[in-house]
Amino acid sequence: MRLSRLVSAALLTVASVALVACGRSSSSSTSTTASTTATAAACSKAALKTHAPGTLTVATDKPAYPPYFENEKPANGKGFESAVAYGIAKNLGYAPADVKWVTEPFNSSYAPGPKNFDFDVNQISITPQRAKAVDFSAPYFEAPQALVALKSSDAAKATSLADLQNTQLGVQIGTTSLTAVNDIIKPSKQAKVFDNSNDVVTALKQKQVDAVVVDLPTAFYLTAAQVPTATIVGQFPVPGGDKWGALLAKGSPLTACISKAVSELKTSGELAKINQQWLGAAAGAPKLG
Amino acid sequence: MVTPGEDRKAVRAEAKRRSARRSATIATVSTIVVIGGLLAFMVTRPGWSNVHQLFFNWDEFKKAFPQVLKAFVIDMKLFVIVEICVLAFGLIVALTRTSVHPVLAPGRLLALLYVDLLRGIPTILVVYLIGFGVPALAIAGVPTDPLVLGGIALGLSYGAYVSEVYRSGLQTVHPSQRMAALSVGLTHLQSLRFVVLPQAIRNVRAPLLNDFISLQKDVALVAILGPQEAYRIAQIIQGEDFNYTPLLAAALLYFAVTFPLARILDRMNRRDPAQMALAVR
After folding, report:
1. Where are the alpha helices (DSSP H) in chain A?
2. Quick check: B142 contacting A, CB < 8 Å?
3. pTM for the complete prediction?
4. What's the sign of the alpha-carbon dihedral B112, B116, B119, B122?
5. Which residues of B151-188 are buried (b: 16+ CB within 10 A; e: fewer)?
6. B245 CB near a chain A CB, below 8 Å?
């Protein structure tokens, strides 16, 4: 009797607080990707309110994979995303020595609260849903998806996505590849979803999955260096495109400037050069209909 | 006609009722103040609207819950199968460890090694090592299904804990019980089956149930091997939407199953406080 009264009193408290909380939710309505209307003066090194004054703090996950980073050292400027980050820094007036790298796991990059980086480059796809939680810069890359299968498997003989109906697929969690599998391939066997790309590669090597779906540049690295017995079966686009952007804290004062830097890298042809240097091989894979 | 004795009884009962009512009121008020205060503190923090948006998002919850619930069936099936195996396997290990026959000496050594080793390794590592290690051996006929391998890993890990619970139960039965059983003409097996085990298991029901609850939550660990069970589905939606609410939906489901079990355990312990100590490991 006493217990039940106590419980109901506690529930009432919870319910009333929850009501108060619900009443507030409408205030946090959100805008999508920030528009690029930053002036050159506002984006100078002196004017930027960075995490550490005078330093551009850039984050990525660990391990950092090729071809986006080389030798697990983001600070060496090698690899596509490392080069993009240094390109952005240069555009904003930061010398390479002013760029500091920190490790930010993908799953905590969008956690609420203060961030310990200015922007995060980690092959993060821009979606309207995600833009409710974080800011994205203008996209610096657009990737098609690719199917990689062991040369000995049936999946290696596929010529269309329909041929993959009965394939046991493997993908990494939190990736567009997973969305592509669920929305486009729709296999009859539920895809296996792994924590990181190492596990995806291991599962493919050990034949725990028949084929894996990754973005095209990753596919080239995977088949060339990690699993030589595997082959790129083909590439296919994701509806709406898979655009990667730098991730920033929601409402970050830097978003417009980072976007402006990316846009300028694009128009100057610098971005295309970086792309060609690090992802140049990612062309000419057969297309899967 | 009211006798003085009855009158005093009534007065005493009334006083007891009043005191009970007063402590109930105090308990209620104190609960409201403490819990309400904590909640009020939380919702008045400057970051609360962010937390509310990212962890307690009703739209996200509505979207995630049905999918997570559907996937939760996998967890429940795995849990029931593994639990049955663990109860049987743990008993075998415990009986081996407590056996005295010299021919079983290597068995005792193996059981000891097994228990020490598996209790010393985090369950998530056991799941990972078996889930990715066994397929690497490429032995013909050995399953590579992540649910089977994950189940085996959980079974091995929990088998070690549960065998220790059984062992402590077996030790609570006084040796004279077995002697008495043997002296009335029961065989060794019969004395075990009809005299020792019933008492031993009854004495450790509570700690057994405790491991039962623990396993019910730990089935989520097989997610790292790839199957799309409840926790993994929640993580998938979390990564798609950059919102942590789906994890809350999963947490609620695990809680819904463990909560009644925890209440039963609590009642069992209240009936026999001596068992409380055994439930703690």
Report:
1. 2-24, 80-92, 106-109, 176-180, 197-205, 216-221, 255-267, 270-279
2. no
3. 0.74
4. negative
5. bbbbbbbbbbbbbbbbbbbbeebeeeebeebeeeebee
6. no
Spatial distance between the Cα atoms of A43 and A141, rounded to a whole number of angstroms? 22
Q: How far apart are CA A224 and CA A281, in angstroms?
A: 11
- CA end-to-end span of chain A: 66
Residue A135's DSSP bridge partners are A248
Asked if B132 and A21 come within 8 Å (Cβ–Cβ), the reply is no
Pairing of strands A211-215, A169-172: parallel
Q: In what order do the strands lie in the sheet with A247-249?
A: A99-103, A56-60, A119-120, A247-249, A134-136
* Alpha-carbon distances of B226 from A192, A203, A267, B230, rounded to whole Å: 4, 9, 42, 12
- ipTM of the complex in this document: 0.72
**Separation CA B36–CA B47 (nearest Å):** 18
Determine the Cα–Cα distance for residues A166 and A236; give it in Å rounded to an integer.
18
Point out the residue among A17, A173, A179 whose CB comes nearest to the CB of B39. A17
State the sign of the Cα–Cα–Cα–Cα dihedral A117, A121, A122, A123: positive
Pair of tokens at residue A115: 């961030």
> Residue B187 contacts by C-beta under 8 Å, 6 or more apart in sequence?
none
Contact between A255 and A248 under an 8 Å Cβ cutoff? The reply is: yes
Adjacency order of strands within the sheet including A230-236: A192-194, A169-172, A211-215, A145-150, A230-236
E strands within B141-202?
none
Question: Do the Cβ atoms of A195 and B224 come within 8 Å?
Answer: yes
Cβ-Cβ contacts under 8 Å between A and B: the total is 134
Angstrom distance (rounded) from CA A135 to CA B1: 84
CA gap A274, A65 in Å, rounded: 17
How does pLDDT run along chain B (281 residues), one tens digit per residue?
A: 556 667 888 888 888 999 889 989 998 999 899 989 998 888 888 878 888 888 888 999 999 999 999 999 999 999 999 999 999 999 999 999 988 888 889 999 999 999 999 999 999 999 999 998 888 887 777 887 889 999 999 999 999 999 999 999 999 999 899 899 999 999 888 999 999 999 999 889 888 988 989 999 999 999 999 899 999 999 989 888 888 999 999 999 999 988 888 888 778 777 665 555 555 44
Alpha-carbon distances, residue B183 vs B177, B187, B190, B199 (angstroms): 10, 9, 12, 18
HSE value, Cβ hemisphere, 13 Å, CA-based, for A117: 26
CA dihedral in degrees (B173, B179, B181, B187; nearest 10)? 110
Taking CA atoms, B140 is separated from A40, A209, A258, B104, B137, in Å, by 65, 16, 54, 31, 9
| Alpha-carbon span B152 to A261, nearest angstrom | 53
Length of chain B: 281
